[in-house]
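---------- Forwarded message ----------

FYI, see the ROK family protein record below. Original note from H. follows.
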Amino acid sequence: MPVKQKKESGNNILSIDIGGTSIKACILSSKGDLLSEFKKLPTPKNSTPEEVIKTIKELVSSLEDTFDRISIGFPGYVKCGKVETAPNLAKNKWTNVNLAQQVSNLFNRPVRLINDADQQALGIVSGIGFEIVFTVGTGFGTALVFDGELLPHFELAHLPVTKTKDYDDYIGTKAFEKIGKKDWNERLERIIQIYKTVFNYDTLYIGGGNSKHITFELDHNIHLVTNKDGIKGGAKLWEVAEKYHVYTTRPNDK
């Protein structure tokens, strides 16, 4: 997606994507056009809330364009602006963390914080029928959308898929590195078959850093997508109604 140099005023959005491997940020117009470079930094090894916020602050300092609202995609379960789980970040440090409020206070801007797969989905889906988005990266992210409306988030990554493994364990990066590309592809094919049977989706989108390793032929209604394909999700997040897990956090009065 080409960068548009023309700046808008009043509606620009800082879009942040927090991942287990990297944290990314850019400035979007209200329509989802990219107004700045797509910047990223490695996720801190000690990925506590304090370190993640420090990295976000560093990323934002490198962006020249101004912004008026903030969208954040987070790799875990988020409810009303608070993080409840973060399985691929610092262990036991992310329970009931009011991340949206902290970021809102830091930049003095309103914030909407949702699951990262949900945010990507808003920028990817066609808006027709029942659509599912997978992200296969450090872990296994999922989002469910019906006729363009984001449904309540489920942490499907933590459903058991074998006697000893959930989806994160079964298909995440650690599994890929341990079992290799061939067996990893066989596992992903099995997961797709499970989802076809359970959800009977109209369209499935697969993104995330490990999607580039897919070697098998995909069904006609399954599409590969990239992080940049979903970048408009940061703008779309501000178009949807406040319900389910979409919630606006505003700066505390100083």
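H. also flagged this: The chain has a mean pLDDT of 92.
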